[in-house]
Write a structure and sequence with these properties.
With about 210 residues, the chain is of the alpha/beta class. The protein has 8 helices and 5 strands, in the order E-H-E-H-H-E-H-H-E-H-E-H-H. Strands 2-1-3-4-5 form a 5-stranded parallel β-sheet, with helices on both faces.
């Protein structure tokens, strides 16, 4: 896959876990590797290292916390986004919820998005993934069909943070690849030119 000629394809992964040893971060790192294998530039946004304030609806949070502005700028510059979260009480993490609330259409609208979630139990993290899919749709992001729910996450990664099962590793890489592929198509000059021509085309006179 060639990257768009006007700028490198950029994929970011937002880790919605604050644990020092985080299975969410491990899963997200594997997914980003899939995007990188197709030539994308990737970056892990680890929310442990961001001093974010709580969203209060004022839209002034970035003026009070430089890391809010940093997060917004990094996501705004991306062509595609991977979200990773642990499932807590059948939902996604509070830190990821707050990070998403601090952003909006300018950062996420029209972006290609992929989802990864982990669970400590055997039921997986389907509820967290479903909730994030609704959020993506609300923000006018293009959420790819591929997603990964990881049950019993503590058993799925080795000491180096790599997936111990080849099938799981491939599923995670596939999410990253799908985000990269669709982000490329969505951001390429050819696609942008097609959309421009389509939007400016005269109305079809057929039927008059």
């Amino acid at each position: 896959m060639n990257t768009p000629p006007h700028e490198p394809l950029r994929i970011v992964g937002i880790c919605g876990s604050l644990r020092a040893v985080s299975y969410t971060r491990m899963a997200l790192t594997e997914a980003l590797a899939g995007a990188r294998a197709l030539g994308a530039e990737t970056e892990l946004i680890d929310l442990r290292h961001y001093a974010l304030v709580f969203c209060d609806g004022s839209k002034q949070e970035a003026q009070r916390a430089p890391d809010v502005a940093r997060l917004q700028a990094q996501v705004r510059a991306a062509h595609g986004i991977l979200l990773g979260t642990p499932e807590y009480h059948s939902g996604y993490s509070g830190v990821l919820k707050n990070a998403l609330d601090l952003m909006g259409f300018e950062e996420l609208g029209g972006k290609v998005m992929g989802l990864v979630a982990v669970s400590g139990g055997g039921m997986g993290a389907a509820n967290a993934l479903n909730a994030l899919r609704v959020v993506g749709r609300s923000l006018h992001a293009w959420v790819v069909p591929e997603q990964v729910s990881i049950a019993q996450a503590s058993k799925q990664f080795d000491a180096a943070g790599r997936a111990v099962d080849a099938d799981l590793a491939e599923r995670l890489h596939a999410v990253g690849r799908q985000v990269a592929r669709f982000a490329y198509l969505h951001s390429s000059q050819q696609a942008q030119e097609f959309l421009r021509l389509w939007e400016t085309a005269p109305a079809n006179p057929g039927g008059r």
